[in-house]
Amino acid sequence: MSHSQCVPREGDAGATRQQDALEPVSVLVVEDEQDTRDLLALVVSKAGYSVRTAENGQQALEMLQTVRPSLILLDVQMPVMDGAEFRQAMRRDRSLLKIPTVVLTGAAVEPMLDIAVDEALRKPVKSADLLAIVRRHCGDPH
Fold first, then answer.
1. Whole-Å CA distances, 81 to 26, 30, 38
2. CATH code (residue 85)
């Protein structure tokens, strides 16, 4: 599992007191393709947000035991645990459902909304579109 350094944003507090003990992170990128994962993380981190990455849904669920991102960027087709299975697992923990989730997919966007995500972006993702969504859910990093 690769990840960039996680630096809490000023004022990035957990939604509940229970979450205060968890490490704050702005964006969790869940993507199995390393080049895509690294590029997404680079674009988001260069904009000033802290980023963590996971290679699949299972790794992401494990990370959510210790971090609470402001946003999850989620690939759909991944080995081990895909995006739909990840969302099903999130539904079992109500605190996780509070985290906005944006699906990144090479498929048609409309069917992706059926897996109960907040938004969907079609790959290849334009940096400007990605950052607009990150800002909408995370606010300004500065």
1. 22, 11, 19
2. 3.40.50.2300
